[in-house]
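Internal tracking record. Fields below are filled automatically when a chain is submitted to the structure queue. Please do not edit lines marked as system-generated. If the sequence contains nonstandard residues, flag them in the REMARKS field before resubmitting.
Queue: standard
Priority: normal
Entity type: single polypeptide chain
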Amino acid sequence: MFTSFDYCCRGPQSTYKIMVGRSKNVTGPYVDREGVALEQGGGTQVLAGDKNWFGLGHNSVYTFDKQDYLVFHGYDAADQGRSKLRLEKLSWDAAGWPLVQP
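SYSTEM-GENERATED OUTPUT FOLLOWS
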């Protein structure tokens, strides 16, 4: 399950980040890489903001032509913190956890 944590919708002050947890059952519990449940504060970070982009979140995952993508918004530091749609290729490590390498 992909989710967003922290503060959204505050432009440059946004601290949103994209996290993930997984479960053997659709009803949960969902846990991070270390086994900590998401409802207990767990979550494996997939992508977070930096000096160029603030508040990455509101994400979804899609597959086009056999390539997985992470679609999300972020606040563009180079454009006065305006919200913009972003798209990054998504891959998976050997243990099946998602990786984004922008």
